[in-house]
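Case study.
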Amino acid sequence: MALTLEEVRHIAQLARLDLTREEEERYREQLSAILEYAARLAQVDTSAIPPTSTVLPLDAPLREDTPRPSASQEAILHNAPSSQEGMFRIPPVLDAGP
Amino acid sequence: MPALVDLTLLEASAELRTGRLSSVELVRACLDAINRLEPAIHAFLALTPDVALAQAQQSDQRLSAWRHNPDRALSPLCGIPIAVKDVLCLKDVPTTCGSKILEGFRPPYTATSVQRLIDAGAVILGKTNTDEFAMGSSTENSAYGVTHNPWDLDRVPGGSSGGSAAAVAARLSFAALGTDTGGSVRQPAAFCGVTGIKTSYGRVSRYGLIAYGSSLDTVGALARSASDLLPVFLAMAGPDPLDSTCMPSAAPAFQLGDGQLPSGLHGRQLRIGVPREYFIEGMHPAVEKGVREAVEVFRGLGAEVQDISLPHTDLALPVYYLIAPAEASANLARYDGVRFGPRLEAQGLLEQYYSTRGQLFGREVKRRIMLGSYALSAGYYDAYYGQAQKVRTLIKGDFESALREVDLIACPVAPTTAFKIGAHGDDPLSMYLEDVFTLPANLAGVPGLAFPVGFDSDGLPIGMQLKAQHLGEPLLFQAAHAYQCATNWHKERPPL
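After joint prediction, the assembly is written out as follows.
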């Protein structure tokens, strides 16, 4: 299962990762080798096997929806690289317009 | 009395209760040892001496109050210095996951597992080194430098809980918290010659554990023996309203015997199964010999030993390296330079995501995010992630069948002893093969306990693991304790 450079770039885009040319080539080789190794899973007949998404023998337990104290706005914003007036500050997501 | 740091956790606890020793003295002894040895070992990413000394004073007051009223319950951990892997949140103390993308992050809350130790009176010395986001088997993937194995400073301590294992082995701390997603407690325990518990999935709250692979992540711990480890495990285990996957029945209460082997299912003699798939070509002969000799010790203690098969073992590695990266790619989507951690400024928001993540994640983390994104992407989901989830059912079934026949499964922790720093270069697949014996327990959700059973010709510790059925920790601790009552491997100390 050899990946192409195009596929590597597509995956990096899905994952929101800037990669250097060198990284693209290295990940192409390494991910191809890992996927090659994983290809042995295709040999297993799982037509009658259900998937395991949890190993727990229980359903999600329910609890009363009662209000309780949570962290303050100040405590949460404290870790933000940039904040203003109680909000996270980010670069513009819309064009400023003409 | 031996040097304070050479006391076992339980001996130190007994001394604290008599009042002949104070927690403040014990913390100072650990801080002295850290000052002396840390430059060579680099087990810690952050030290919290001021917090530790303040906690120690409080614990000394609790101990003093207890001496006036000794009928009151008091945890053996009261006054005991402990280290915490840097993937568990401790309020206001830098928590980095070994990553540049969380540099400077000070969590606004404390992980339940850590809080329970603090509530028991344990004293937190600092945060220990880890492979970035717990992705690795050597701590070489930490963005803040590798930890050195106390038995041979040119070798890795294992990983990802390598800082915790090295801190315990070098006697910088009496115990340490670790986490195990694919072997990250057991393999460093084996490489550093200490005892480590990978708990059953759902046994210990994951609240405040920074997520890597959510269906696999477990909080565990390391100490110098099963008896020292038990109070740490007991303090942490139990349901938590803040983690819906932590089981209502998770709080156990049991004691270790006086060295007798526990009985097996329905009161019969303990049965130990040795899976043939765990003795593979290419494994270190000294590891196989050490584990087989340890099995004979168990036989001598009265265990029935039988060969068993876990037929899907060889599929665990490809299953794990699809499921864990898939879960990681989702969990690590939150690192976007908006809410925490540093950000690399860019023209627009999207560009900021790309540059912040591209430059601040390390190469193994990026590799796993890419692998996971691919396995979950349109057109490949069924072939990779979906198929891996189904084969996971077969691996879980292997354990269920085997553990109807036997009470415990005994096998090596890793195919080799500690390897040299840099030995795997940038070859991810060869590094992943280090995990071949530890991954299956995470996929099945069962507990495992690793402990030292000998040394190779280079003087490096050899580890063995016992596995039991889900929530079978009592049997693991009792059996490992029986072994440690009959042998002295766990008492050996590194030549520092």
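Observations recorded in class. The mean pLDDT of chain A is 91. The longest strand of chain A covers residues 83-84. We will return to this complex in the next lecture.
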